[in-house]
């Protein structure tokens, strides 16, 4: 079980790098600096919540827990990650569309990535919640399968920055205090 937790925790951190290396935008909304500040303001608490949930679950899971306790902890972790991802997605949506080339594509990319992460956490939560705890080996095999699926979905949800290249937004993300 320890490898599953370490792998899942690593995935939580990896995706954050995707959001820090930023992107590009469109027109008619907030300035690149205002948009970057709003997005970082949405992602900073999200990152903290994911980190807190991961640490808390790691601590609880490293103790000699029963499958029932492990199930409760993991369901709570993935449910919290799902909720935090949705909150971040909503805040990015509320940030609007940055006033820069391809701004709409950038905004949609961020929101879509967070939506996919939210859904991946929800599916992992549901998978683990559906596992029986009477047979520890079967339970932990099910947990491993759920975490493997989560990791694949998490990787697939990463924001593709290759088409989103805005010097204005890169500069804004580098300069605004909310992104540091």
Strand content: under 5%
Given the structure, what is the number of helices? 6
Give the distance, in angstroms, between the N- and C-terminal Cα atoms: 34 Å
Shape: elongated
Structural class: mainly alpha
* Biggest sheet details: none
Gyration radius, rounded: 18 Å
Layout: helices, strands, pairs:
Elements: H1 2-20, H2 32-62, H3 67-94, H4 103-129, H5 136-156, H6 167-175
Give a quick set of tags describing it:
about 180 residues; 6 helices; mainly alpha
General description of the model:
The chain is mainly alpha-helical and 180 residues long. Helix content is 75%, strand content 0%. It contains 6 helices and no strands. Helix 4 (103-129) packs antiparallel against helix 5. The protein starts with a helix and ends in a 5-residue tail after the last helix. The model is unreliable at 1-10 and 12-27 (pLDDT under 50).
In short:
The protein is mostly helical and 180 residues long.
């Amino acid at each position: 079980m320890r490898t599953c937790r370490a792998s899942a925790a690593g995935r939580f951190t990896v995706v954050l790098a995707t959001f820090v290396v930023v992107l590009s935008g469109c027109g008619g909304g907030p300035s690149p600096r205002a948009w970057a500040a709003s997005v970082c303001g949405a992602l900073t608490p999200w990152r903290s919540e994911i980190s807190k949930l991961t640490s808390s679950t790691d601590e609880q899971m490293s103790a000699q827990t029963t499958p029932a306790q492990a199930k409760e902890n993991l369901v709570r972790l993935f449910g919290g990650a799902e909720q935090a991802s949705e909150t971040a997605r909503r805040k990015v949506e509320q940030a609007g569309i940055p006033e820069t080339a391809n701004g709409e594509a950038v905004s949609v990319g961020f929101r879509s990535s967070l939506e996919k992460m939210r859904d991946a956490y929800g599916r992992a939560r549901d998978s683990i919640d559906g596992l029986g705890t009477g047979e520890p080996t079967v339970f932990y095999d099910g947990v491993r399968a759920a975490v493997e699926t989560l990791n694949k979905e998490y990787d697939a949800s990463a924001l593709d920055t290759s088409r989103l290249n805005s010097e204005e937004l890169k500069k804004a993300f580098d300069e605004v205090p909310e992104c540091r």
